[in-house]
Amino acid sequence: MASSLNIWMIRVYIGSRSRYGGRPLHKAIVESAREHGMVGATVIRGMLGYGKSGVIHRASLRARFNEFPLVVQIADQPERIAAFLPQLEPMIQNGLVTVQTLLSEQMLTKCKTALQDS
């Protein structure tokens, strides 16, 4: 991707036991992102976390039997992210979805310059 592009990132915070269509939710999200031509998706396994329930979930040697936190990240151009969000919405029953703008190298340089000038 060119450094002057505006890039958005979706982050989906879910539990490892979350499912959609009879399969693990994180796999369903990644497969759907690929089918919709998204640039890339990554699943990150959390060591410790809690959500709306307040129950602390932790990764352990017995993680196969316990729920642990996962984050699915998908980055692409804003219009492609916006087009993908309606596909993602019905998949998420319990979880949190965030969308953020990532600074390109060009924007980061402008921000640094502005901070130095102030």
Q: What strand line-up does the widest sheet have?
A: 4-7-1-8
What is the averaged pLDDT score? 86
Largest sheet: 4 strands, antiparallel
CATH topology: Alpha-Beta Plaits
The CATH class name reads Alpha Beta
Terminal-residue CA separation: 31 Å
Strand content: 25-35%
Q: Would you report the number of β strands?
A: 8
Q: What structural class do the secondary elements suggest?
A: alpha+beta
**How big is the Rg?**
17 Å
The percent range for helix content is: 25-40%
Order of helices and strands: EEEHEEEEHEH
User: In one word, what is the shape?
Assistant: globular
List low-pLDDT spans: none
Number of helical runs? Answer: 3
Oligomer designation? single chain
Number of domains: 1
Write the CATH architecture name: 2-Layer Sandwich
Could you explain how this protein is built, in words?
- The chain is of the alpha+beta class and 118 residues long.
- The protein has one domain: Alpha-Beta Plaits (2-Layer Sandwich), CATH 3.30.70.120.
- It contains three helices and eight strands, in the order βββαββββαβα.
- The strands form three sheets. It has a four-stranded antiparallel beta sheet. A two-stranded antiparallel ribbon has the order 2-3.
- A hairpin with a 2-residue loop joins strand 2 and strand 3.
- The longest helix has 13 residues.
- The protein starts with 6 loop residues before the first strand and ends with a helix.
- The mean pLDDT is 86.
